[in-house]
Amino acid sequence: MKIVSYNINGIRSSFRKGLGEWIKNFDGDVYCFQEVRADENIVKSLISGQAQIDMFTSPEKFCELNMILNCGSKPGYAGTMILCKNKPDIVFYDMGEIWHDDEGRTTTAVFGNLAIVNSYIPNGNSRLEFKMSYLAALTKYISGLREKYNVICLGDFNIAHNEIDLTNPKECKNKSVFLPIEREAFGEILNVGLIDSFRFCNPQKREYSWRSYRSLQDNYYNGWKYRIDYVLSDEKLKEKIVSSSIIDVAYSDHLPVVLEINL
Question: pLDDT tens digits, residue range 59-103?
């Protein structure tokens, strides 16, 4: 099973750059996208236009993938989307009674005894209290899910967990993305019973999932880079992990993280 987490920083922009073709060619089983930044009508119009080119007519079955949208109510902001080969048995929006927002930040797809949580953690630069509340709710939510399911929680966490996960740790020690309280909150999520699949497979590898657009446009490779996108796997599944990698493509300022696992 190939599971992808990708902050696309706007579906309109990413599709103009070729994201639709990449989805078709990559042949993933589950794609979890964050920061869709469009309402459902716009997303379905984009998907439908791409689909018709390829002789598919239903936006709900783009490239023979089932589509789950959680766009939120604020136009052009946040939102999550899941595309998957198999139709989920259950879909949860938000986190039930634990947490609700109108920004479409959390979508869970359940396949048998596996729950995949697609999460877009808030940026803490201007909303640190909101971010910390969300992280606490997510920790509680995952803990509850693990009573019934094996859990994979993935997404843009807007946190670099350790110094190896960013290029300028000293300069970032007082910056949201690397604040001690954020890193501690990330650790609390792991303590529920999850493992960082990329670090599990690549213990010493320095690789990043976000880089500034300047580094793309000006060939500026020494700027700020973070590993803030994660696929966290239930520790009960760790022996089934085949690989975890970050793919270098240019459809966003983020890069997709891919987990291959035998399930």
Answer: 455 768 899 999 999 889 999 999 999 999 999 999 999 999 999
Let me know: does 58 contact 29? Beta carbons within 8 Å.
Answer: no
Distances in whole angstroms, Cα of residue 162 to Cα of each of 127, 165, 211, 236, 253 = 22, 5, 17, 23, 21
Burial 50-87 (b: 16+ CB within 10 A, else e): bbeeeebeebeebbebbbbbbbbeeeeebbbbbbbeee
Q: Which of 120, 134, 226, 251 is catalytic?
A: 120
Under DSSP, is residue 153 helix (H, G, I), strand (E, B) or coil? strand
Specify whether 120 is catalytic: yes
What are the φ and ψ backbone dihedral angles of 27, each rounded to 5 degrees? 60, 50
pTM (predicted TM-score)? 0.94
Spatial CB neighbours of 85, under 8 Å, sequence gap ≥ 6? 29, 30, 64, 65, 66
156 counts as catalytic: yes
Q: Which of 39, 94, 101, 156 is catalytic?
A: 156
CA 72 to chain centre: 16
Residue spans per domain, the chain: 2-261
Give the integer Cα–Cα distance in Å for 108 and 91.
Answer: 6
For 208-253, the pLDDT digits (tens) are 999 977 665 555 555 789 999 999 999 999 999 999 999 999 999 9
Please give the Cα distance from 193 to 248 (Å, whole number): 29
Mention the CATH class of domain 2-261.
alpha beta
> Is the separation of the CB atoms in 79 and 38 below 8 Å?
yes
Instruction: Find, among 76, 94, 80, 8, the residue nearest to 39 by Cα.
Output: 76
Among residues 158, 172, 66, the alpha carbon closest in space to that of 119 is found at: 158
Long-range contacts from 41-44, C-beta under 8 angstroms, 24+ separation? 42/11, 42/12, 43/11, 43/69, 43/71, 43/81, 44/69
